[in-house]
Amino acid sequence: MTTHTPDRPRCQAVFPALGTTAAVLVTDSDALPAAQAVLRAELAAVDRSCSRFRPDSELTRVNVGAGVPTTVSSYFAEALQAAVRAARLTGGAVDPTVGSAVVALGYDRTFASLAPEDAHPVPVSRPASGWRRIAFDPRTRRLCLPPGTRLDLGATAKALAADRAVRRAAAVTGCGVLVSLGGDLATAGPAPAGGWRIALADDHAHPAPEGGPAVAVTGGALATSGIRVRTWRRDGRVLHHIVDPATGEPATSVWRTVTVAAATCVDANAASTAAIVLGDRAADWLRATALPARLTGLDGRVLRLGGWPPDSHAPAPVDSRGTASGGSR
Predict the structure, then answer these.
(1) What is the number of structural domains in the chain?
(2) How far apart are CA 270 and CA 90, in angstroms?
(3) Which of 7, 74, 189, 241 has fewest C-beta within 10 Å?
(4) In the structure, what pLDDT confidence band is assigned to residue 111 with cuts at 50, 70 and 90?
């Protein structure tokens, strides 16, 4: 995952949220309270709307009512449209209808509550029902899921919250802002001199190794997907949280982590998650998007694409205004 290292601690706030770590950084220390308030409000909104672990969330209501038309809130509609767009642009590699598969694998509660060892057998996997079967009218916000379908917006809702919060915080404060949620980050407003310095590591919650790779983000967003952090064992199998919609199984492990730069955190996250799912096909797909990307194989081999700079402790600039473009599974 990605970690950030601000020059001045008084210009940042870090706190737990959404089962991970939230952080907001500003270029003007006087703006920190306002930026933090914007981020906390956004996190509360996305949790109420899109959490699959809250019995009172809108997502839970939608999933329970699968097969019956319902009207959703404007926030949920935006999150759903972001998820469907990610599915379309990734050729279905990232699909919001994987909810039932994720639950079947045992990830049916917050990760902190998940038993690291579970003796229960893993049920026979089934492909996701597929994003194309979602019936949604953006004008009326009427939604009908296929019967038995569970949505999981985890691949895009957190990234959308980062994008929304950073834009709002920059507008409110008038300064440069970086928002990081679990290491996936978005920026808005003028970057600090030399850019936002970002160290790269498998786990955003642990310090990056001294002398490890780093980049300087001068605009846009950065997201990392990986298979090393959110893992658990069930019936002797090691499982991870990134599910291949085509099989309903955890994606075949080819890349340890994939980091992608894009114009928005939603696009960066969609592309990095798709790369994990695509495995051996990820490099060609990412080349077609032209997004800067850094892929680390299980053996530590690093592949840089789209102009991603060579690894260096002195951060080299990375800035992408691009958008993930469509690919086929």
Answers:
(1) 2
(2) 7
(3) 74
(4) low
